[in-house]
Specification:
Elements (H helix, E strand, L loop, with lengths): L19 H117 L3 E5 L10 H13 L10 E6 L16 E5 L2 H14 L2 E3 L2 E7 L3 H8 L2 H9 L3 E5 L3 E6 L2 E5 L2 H10 L7
Antiparallel strand pairs: 1-3, 1-5, 2-3, 4-5, 6-7, 7-8
Length: 299
């Protein structure tokens, strides 16, 4: 028979029991851990919900932005299409304008050439008319400074008698014959002074009589009627007179320097200085001669 092994009684001295206070602390720790885990789970749940809500808002904003971009894109495309239409229209108009401008430039060129030709013709005709007018005035003479009403009622008879008397009968081998004579409006009077006598235009029947009067007046140098100085000048057209009047300033300068001068028809000046004769075409050339002592153009 097998030998029975006797049961050993537990050694009460070696087994330790957990005190009640320690068990309560462990239980509380487990509960706190459970609460912490539950709180973490709840926080995770809340965070997940907030994340989902945020994602929803982002998606909604993206959809809204996409719709706005789509709308703006459609508007931009419509504007671009309209601009293309306008550019096409403007391109057509620009082409038409260029054609018209080209045609206008061609017409302007033709008109410019025509005008240039007409200007040359007008200049030539004007010079010819002026020449004819001066030829018609060849027998005319201007008498400046003769007092008003000195000629009486018969101007022609008075001048036919007075001119030989004042210039010397020896200068006129034949009696003067004056075809007509009349006064013309004079210049503006100076302030606070009486108006000067109006010039007399005298037309001789014979051109040679006019030449004799001019030569005799130049030789006498000074002609007096009463107390007035009388001057004799050729009668020219308005254009020639205007051109000759431009020499007025240089005439005074030449007189101051004692240089002899004269005018050549239609509007040139000559000087006699140091035995040399110089001819000038413009007053500027005379001024240059006076300033530098040299003439710029000798004739």
């Amino acid at each position: 028979m097998p030998q029975k092994i006797p049961k050993l009684k537990p050694n009460c001295s070696r087994t330790r029991r957990t005190p009640p206070t320690t068990r309560q602390a462990k239980l509380k720790l487990k509960m706190d851990t459970a609460n912490v885990n539950a709180g973490g789970a709840s926080a995770n749940l809340i965070a997940s919900s907030a994340q989902a809500e945020s994602n929803g808002k982002i998606l909604e904003a993206i959809h809204s932005l996409r719709a706005d971009v789509t709308t703006r894109n459609d508007e931009i495309l419509a504007a671009i299409s309209e601009i293309k239409t306008d550019l096409s229209s403007y391109s057509g108009r620009l082409t038409q304008a260029e054609d018209r401008i080209g045609e206008t430039e061609d017409n302007v060129t033709v008109l410019h050439n025509t005008v240039n030709g007409m200007e040359k013709v007008i200049t030539a005709l004007t010079e010819k008319v002026d020449d004819l007018e001066n030829r018609d005035r060849r027998s005319n003479l201007r008498v400046i400074g003769l007092p008003e009403n000195a000629e009486g009622r018969d101007v022609e008879s008075f001048l036919e008698k007075w001119i030989p008397e004042v210039l010397g009968p020896e200068n006129f081998p034949t009696p003067l014959v004056i075809e007509r004579a009349h006064r013309i409006p004079g210049g503006r009077p100076k302030p606070n002074s009486p108006p000067p006598p109006r010039p007399l235009i005298v037309t001789f029947l014979n051109f040679r009589d006019k030449v004799r009067v001019m030569q005799a007046a130049r030789a006498k140098e000074k002609v007096i009627y009463g107390t007035r100085h009388i001057m004799f000048f050729p009668d020219f057209s308005a254009e020639v007179t205007k051109r000759r009047m431009k020499y007025g300033e240089v005439k005074q300068q030449l007189r101051t320097r004692g240089i002899q001068f004269g005018l050549i028809f239609p509007a040139r000046m000559y000087t006699l200085h140091n035995g040399k004769r110089r001819v000038f075409n413009t007053p500027e050339e005379v001024e240059s001669f006076i300033r530098d002592g040299k003439d710029t153009d000798n004739g």
